[in-house]
């Protein structure tokens, strides 16, 4: 509860200080106070120098915001660079005499300071010009940063939309195959049907309620695979050798959901056929603290290679795309296709 409160408070503070009117005000106040402190150091005329900085800041701000809200959108953004440079310089020429006039009038009781103001007109013009120029640079940088942020958000939204689409294709695909198997058993009035319903219920609960997150605990994904393997053992005949082994410590690792099931489903769909006297599916899942390695090998029936590849389904195409999106440059996938066996090696770096 404390962490949630702290995070919420931090977000509110961040949102407040990132508002333009707030951080601009903070910058102007910081400028006025810092320069007042420098100029009044060692004197007893703090308020005199403070009022001077208020006058200067007012005209600097006029030039800065005229530049930001008028000159940049209408000239610099339109690539009218020469016109923009002339108008920016002209703005400094207009603002500087106004600053001089107010400072001169305010310094009437101080003739020496009036003379100082008069002698430093070029520096006052230069300071005004630099303020406007710095505002231009800051505007360019902030616009670039905002563009990069919006581009990143758009890419994230696009990737999330694509991932949701790919996942929506995987779930009905698996459900169709499982219900088809259950239907075959109910036709035979098999005693295995109720057990399959229980397993399927657990799997559907996981798919519907927990796989909406981008990452899920690895142990939940492993439990899901165990249920699937139990379901296949109930469904398959006794001449099929099914092996599923998990090596390593399944602790607090996290993984994208439903990445392994298309490969495993494919191994049963195409690795066990009625024309095989003895089929097999071997699945090994090795887990390290920072990586997970899936190895699948299944027997392959005698059929044309073209048919085998075509019947591979959309599952494998989708899972490759999901791996590219979720684990760019962090996974290795290889396929071993021989006349009698089909193997899959998938290693994912979890960090």
Summarize the structure in words:
Helix 4 packs across helix 6 (about 120-185) and helix 6 (about 120-185) runs antiparallel to helix 7 (about 190-210). The chain has a five-stranded mixed sheet with strand order 2-4-5-7-6, covered by helices on one side. Strands 1-3 form a two-stranded antiparallel sheet. A hairpin with a 3-residue loop joins strand 4 (about 280-285) and strand 5. It is rod-shaped, with a radius of gyration of 35 Å. It has two domains: about 1-150, no CATH class; about 190-350, Heat Shock Protein 90. The chain starts with a helix and ends with a strand. It has helices spanning about 1-15, 20-40, 45-75, 80-105, 110-120, 120-185, 190-210, 220-235, 260-270, 305-310, 315-325; strands at about 215, 240-250, 255, 280-285, 290-300, 330-335, 340-350. With about 350 residues, it is of the alpha+beta class. The longest helix is centred in the middle third of the chain and has 67 residues, at about 120-185. The chain has eleven helices and seven strands.
Topology:
Elements: H1 2-17, H2 20-39, H3 46-76, H4 81-106, H5 111-119, H6 121-187, H7 192-209, E1 216-217, H8 218-235, E2 240-248, E3 254-255, H9 261-271, E4 279-287, E5 291-299, H10 305-310, H11 313-326, E6 331-337, E7 341-349
Helix pairs in contact: 2-3, 3-4, 3-6, 4-6, 6-7, 6-11, 7-8
């Amino acid at each position: 509860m404390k962490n949630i409160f702290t995070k919420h408070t931090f977000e509110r503070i961040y949102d407040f200080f990132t508002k333009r009117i707030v951080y601009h005000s903070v910058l102007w106040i910081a400028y006025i106070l810092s320069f007042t402190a420098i100029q009044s150091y060692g004197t007893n005329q703090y308020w005199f120098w403070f009022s001077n900085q208020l006058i200067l800041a007012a005209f600097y701000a006029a030039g800065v915001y005229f530049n930001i809200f008028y000159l940049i959108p209408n000239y610099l953004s339109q690539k009218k660079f020469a016109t923009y440079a002339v108008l920016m310089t002209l703005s400094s020429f207009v603002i500087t005499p106004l600053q001089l006039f107010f400072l001169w009038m305010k310094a009437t009781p101080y003739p020496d300071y009036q003379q100082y103001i008069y002698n430093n007109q070029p520096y006052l013009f230069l300071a005004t010009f630099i303020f406007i120029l710095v505002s231009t640079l800051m505007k360019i940088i902030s616009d670039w940063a905002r563009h990069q942020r919006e581009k990143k958000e758009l890419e994230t939204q696009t990737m999330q939309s694509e991932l949701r689409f790919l996942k929506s294709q995987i779930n009905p695909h698996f459900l169709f195959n499982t219900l088809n198997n259950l239907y075959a058993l109910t036709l035979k009035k098999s005693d295995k049907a109720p057990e399959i319903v229980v397993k399927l219920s657990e799997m559907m609960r996981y798919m519907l309620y927990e796989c909406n997150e981008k990452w899920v605990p690895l142990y939940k994904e492993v439990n899901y695979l165990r249920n699937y393997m139990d379901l296949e053992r109930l469904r398959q005949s006794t001449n099929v050798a099914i092996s599923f082994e998990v090596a390593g410590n399944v602790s607090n690792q996290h993984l994208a959901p439903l990445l392994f099931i298309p490969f495993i489903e494919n191994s049963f769909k195409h690795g066990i056929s009625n024309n095989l006297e003895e089929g097999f599916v071997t699945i090994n899942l090795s887990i390290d603290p920072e990586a997970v390695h899936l190895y699948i090998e299944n027997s392959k029936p005698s059929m044309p290679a073209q048919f085998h590849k075509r019947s591979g389904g959309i599952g494998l195409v989708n899972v490759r795309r999901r791996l590219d999106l979720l684990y760019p440059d962090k996974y290795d996938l290889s396929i071993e296709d021989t006349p009698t066996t089909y193997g899959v090696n998938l290693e994912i770096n979890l960090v």
